[in-house]
């Protein structure tokens, strides 16, 4: 907010307090008006005092230093962003990450939330906006140390904090994977071409596996070669997690893409329960017949027992049915256009995606098998869940599985907000250190999100970070003295709201 003097055609000067938010100017208060110059000055001072009362801002007190006030602006030695450390730095410490012995770990983590970029650009940003001067080679050396000695401790601290939040209940874990591609041409031992979730099948990549608790709090992670089958990544992470914390058994929730018959056998052999997305179209003929004869209503679910220890829950949603039909018709339309253009040959006839609707007429002509397309309508709206957790109700099974969206959100935040990629490192230990920093940043983000929810705040975690980035600290050197004075500047209602709900000052 600021004080504006507006001269009217009559010569009267109106003194107003103006707020500029989101590019809009709003009159917050009209202090008064006058033609008298001295009176206008008095009104301006009155407006300035009103702003201070509203924002809680206090002027730097130089009363102990004679004649200093006129030279204040010339003596400003530093203006830095303070809100990030006040807000996210406190949460970082509350989680326990301040136990990591390095002055670089905290700024590297917080910068991924504040201004995610390459390590070189990060060092420039820290110098420019935080007066933290560190050369990029020191960052690289620290990343080597992080990988060698601190990576496991970071995950352990995250686990301890999550257990504290959930009341020691870490019996249900959720697992999923994503892929992170690199803008390079040649593969190496880690970065290999494989199935890319980003559609970058020609780019070498790595596979990132993430284990989270209920409510989406990160527990553990690992990275794998880019060509590794995602189903083979799950058990190594879970086995390591179980052994590390001496857990007797877990309930594992995962998507159908991670499941194979051997995976299920291994999970059961280890004494775990599981809740998995089921491939209902790949069931034995007798189970398929039972599924298709259920005749479910919207929102209804029924249980089919595959054997005494394995249940298949089938749920029907009319909304899902409409989406399934729309997707099938869109896929069919694309195939028809490709046939007309002559782009499809008999080599395209396979079971992948909507290509299953193709058939061969004669020896060369490719056409649409409409009978197969119509028969597929019986699956529209159906979703299956397989479990050996027979003590849970079908509603509890479905509810547990639906929490997987939280891990999908974790990947979305990591890729979009934290910009975990592009990854500018080529050495495996530094790639792993980069993932560790991003994992820590996501944990801080989730804790911020949780605290905002507990405080019933009306802003999101993203908005809170954006506001924190606008809170600055000014440092002024005192003339003829070795002393300096600092002041955190609060200038608008958004900043005051954030400061108040978190009691930052």
How does this structure look, described?
Among the domains are: 1-55; 320-379, no CATH class. 41% of the residues lie in helices and 22% in strands. It has helices spanning 37-55, 83-95, 105-114, 119-130, 136-165, 234-244, 261-269, 285-292, 318-341, 370-375, 394-402, 405-417, 428-454, 461-468, 493-502, and strands spanning 2-7, 13-21, 24-34, 76-81, 172-181, 205-213, 218-225, 251-254, 273-278, 301-307, 310-316, 358-361, 365-368, 382-387, 472-477, 484-489. The strands form four sheets. Strands 7-6-5-8-9-14-11-10 form an eight-stranded mixed β-sheet, sandwiched between helices. The chain has a three-stranded antiparallel β-sheet with strand order 1-2-3. Helix 2 packs across helix 13 (428-454).
Strand order of the main beta sheet, please?
7-6-5-8-9-14-11-10
* Biggest sheet layout: 8 strands, mixed
Shape: globular
**Average pLDDT:** 85
Query: Which secondary-structure class do the elements indicate?
Result: alpha+beta
Q: Helical element count?
A: 15
What is the β-strand count? 16
Strand content: 15-25%
Low-confidence stretches: 62-68
Alpha carbon gap, first and last residue: 20 Å
- Rg calculated over all Cα atoms: 30 Å
Q: Roughly what percent helix?
A: 40-55%
